[in-house]
Design brief:
Chain lengths: 359, 359
C-alpha cells in the first residue's frame, strides 16, 4: 500500500511527493524501495503488487521499474484501506483462488528484516491451514500514544496449543484506538497488548468471506468486477466504480467485527515512522541527542532536536531544546517535538490560508 | 563607502553580496541605492563617488547605473577606512583644491532624511569656514553597547558661541570605544555623549593637512599619485600602491589624534543596521513583536523574533522567544537575539570548518 500522503511528516512529505517516496532515512533509497526489496525475500517480483493513488503512478514506475505494469493498482480516489485491499484481493482471486496475501504499508521501518521474514512465513503457514485473519503485533517498548493497540487472549493461546496450533499466535480479543498516556501505560504493563502495525496475512478467499459477511456493500461492488479483472477493461471499471465504495479502513470494516482475528507477536525493530519524533527516536543521535541529515551543522546549547535540511544546506543553531527543524522547498518549520501532533493540522491550515503550494 | 562585508548580518550578508547591496528593509531598494538617492539631495550626481572593493565593481554599476564610471573608486585590498578616504580625498583635491567632502557609510538607515540633509548642509557651511573636521553625532536613545561614543565639551560649545560660531556644533573631547553596558548607561546619563555614526564632513584640504600631520605614511603614499589621479594611469597606480598602505581606520589614524574635531548632534532617525537586532528594533513588528519579510507566516507562542526568509518561502514556527531566524541560500540560522554578537565569529568558523561556500 503506497497511496498515503504522510501528512504528519509535513513539510517534507507533500501531496505531490509523499513520505513513502522519500529517502527519509538518508540511505539512498525511499521507504517504498526498501519495502519492495524486503518483500522480494518473501515472494517473486511478479507477485508483488503496489496499491497506490492514480496520481502517484509515475513515481511508483520511476522508483520500482521492475514491478509489472499490471501489478500497479491505481486508486482513482482516496477511500481508505478497505476498498483498496478489496480491489487487490478480488483481482488476485480471479487469477488464483488459493492465493495467500500479505498486506503491508510501504512507509514503515523494519530493522530486523530476517526476523520479519521468518514471522511472515510463519503467519502465511498458519493462514494457509486455518480460517484465520492474521496481523503482526509489535511488542510495545514504551507507552506510545501514537499507535493503535491489539489486545490478545492469553488463554486462547494456551487453547490453541492444546489444539496443536502454533503457540506464538494469539487470538485477538479487541483492537484499541490510540490511547491516552495513562491507558497506554496500562496496556504496556498488562503484558497482553501489542502495537497494531497494519501488516496483515490471510488467505484471499478467507478475506473475501469476511467482506461478504461484514462489509457486503464493498463485497458486491468489487465482485461486480470479477469478469474484467486482469483484462483490458479493468482500468475503466475501477475508474468508474472505485470512487463509489464506502470510505472506510480495513480495521473498521473487518478486523473489529470478525471473530477469527489472530496476531503473531513480532519483535522486528519496527517503527511506522509516522512522525518526526518517531524518526528522531530511531535515527543515529549525536552526544546531545540531536539527529540531522547535513554534515555542515554548527550546534550550540542545542539538544534533542530533529533537523532535516535540503541537500547541501548548512545549519547554525543555538539554544533549541526538543525541537523539530525542517527546511523543505517553500516551507521552513520550527516546532516543539512535544507538540508535533499539531503538524498535520497546521499543514491543512497553511493550505487553507495561503494556497495549495504548501500541500 | 561601500566596501564592507557586513559580517554581523551573516548569513544574509555574504562576501560576494554584502549588506549594502541587499534590500534588507524590503523596500525594493538596497541600502546603497537608498544612500545614493539621499545624497542626490546634497550634491549633483557627478559629485557622488562610490568607494568600494574591486570585487564589487559590477554590483555597484548594476545598482547605480547613473554614477560616472570614473567616480567608482575600486580598492584592490581591504585596508580599512583611512586609505580609502585618503584615496578619494587626494583624487578630489587634484581636481578641486577647494572641495568640501561628506564621507558616509552606504549601509545605514536614516529615517529623517530632511533633518539629515539640513544637518549636512549646516556642517558643510561650518567646515567651509573653519579649520574643523566634523562628525555627525547621534543623540543616544538607549545605552547601546554596539556603538562607539563621542564625548563633547559643553564649555567649548559655549566658547564657540562667544566666538560667533554655530552653537549646535560642539568640540569633541574624546572618542570612546564600544562600552560595556554600565559605561554606556553612564554616557547616556551624562548628557554630553553622542553615538559615532561614521558620517564625516570636512574640507578636503583640511583632511589632507591632518594626514600630513598624523598619518604621514598614508599621506606620502597617496600624494605620490597626484600626477596620475584622473588620468588613464590612476587604476594601475592604485592597483600597485593601495595594498601597501597601512591597514587602519580613519578614527585611529586621524580623529583620535587631531585637536580640531567637532561634532554636530543630529536626531536623524539613524541606525547603523549593524545587526539583526538593530533591524528588528526599527522594523514594523506584529502584536507579538515579531518582524518578518514573508506574508505566509504561521506563528504560535512566538515572540520578539526576527525572521528573514527567501522570497516565496513560508515559515511555521512555534515556541521561539527572542530568536533570529534567517534562511538564506545554503545556510539556515536559528540564533538567540541576545547572543547575536557571536554571529560574526560563527560565520568565520563555518568557513574555516566547511569551506568558502559559507562566506
Amino acid at each position: 500500500m503506497a497511496g498515503g500522503v504522510g501528512s504528519r511528516f509535513w513539510p517534507k512529505s507533500r501531496n505531490h511527493f509523499p513520505k513513502q517516496f522519500i529517502d527519509i532515512l538518508g540511505t539512498g533509497e525511499s521507504l517504498l524501495q526498501l519495502t519492495y526489496q524486503r518483500f522480494l525475500k518473501v515472494c517473486p517480483n511478479e507477485n508483488i503488487m503496489i496499491l497506490t493513488n492514480a496520481g502517484y503512478a509515475d513515481l511508483v514506475k520511476a522508483q520500482l521499474p521492475a514491478v509489472l505494469e499490471d501489478n500497479i493498482l491505481l486508486e482513482p480516489s482516496r477511500n481508505n484501506t478497505a476498498p483498496c485491499i478489496a480491489y487487490a484481493t478480488y483481482k488476485i482471486l480471479q487469477k488464483n483462488p488459493e492465493a495467500n496475501i500479505v498486506v503491508a504499508p510501504s512507509d514503515h521501518l523494519i530493522l530486523k528484516e530476517d526476523v520479519f521474514i521468518g514471522k511472515i512465513n510463519q503467519a502465511l503457514a498458519f493462514a494457509e491451514s486455518n480460517d484465520a485473519l492474521l496481523t503482526l503485533g509489535i511488542s510495545p517498548t514504551r507507552p506510545d500514544t501514537g499507535y493503535g493497540y491489539i489486545e490478545y487472549l492469553e488463554d486462547e493461546g494456551a487453547r490453541n496449543k492444546e489444539q496443536g496450533l502454533e503457540t506464538e499466535i494469539k487470538k485477538v480479543a479487541a483492537f484499541k484506538e490510540k490511547p491516552v498516556l495513562e491507558k497506554a501505560q496500562e496496556y504496556v504493563n498488562s503484558g497482553n497488548y501489542l502495537w497494531n502495525a497494519g501488516i496483515f496475512i490471510w488467505k484471499a478467499a478467507n478475506l473475501q468471506k469476511a467482506f461478504e459477511k461484514y462489509a457486503p456493500e464493498i463485497d458486491t461492488l468489487f465482485k461486480s468486477g470479477n469478469e474484467v479483472y486482469n483484462t483490458a477493461d479493468e482500468a475503466q471499471f475501477i475508474m468508474d466504480q472505485y470512487p463509489t465504495s464506502p470510505d472506510i479502513s480495513i480495521d473498521y470494516a473487518i478486523l473489529e467485527k470478525a471473530d477469527n482475528i489472530y496476531t503473531l507477536p513480532a519483535d522486528i525493530g519496527w517503527s511506522d515512522l509516522g512522525t518526526w519524533a518517531s524518526l528522531h527516536a530511531i535515527a543515529e543521535q549525536d552526544e546531545q541527542q540531536n539527529v540531522y541529515n547535513s554534515e555542515h551543522i554548527h550546534l550550540n546549547e542545542t539538544r534533542n532536536c530533529m533537523i532535516n535540511l535540503p541537500k547541501g544546506k548548512a545549519a547554525v543553531i543555538r539554544g533549541l531544546d526538543n525541537f523539530i527543524v525542517v527546511d523543505d522547498e517553500n516551507v521552513l518549520m520550527i516546532y516543539p517535538k512535544s507538540e508535533e501532533q499539531e503538524i498535520k493540522g497546521v499543514s491543512k491550515e497553511m493550505v487553507a490560508r495561503f494556497g495549495s503550494q504548501y500541500s
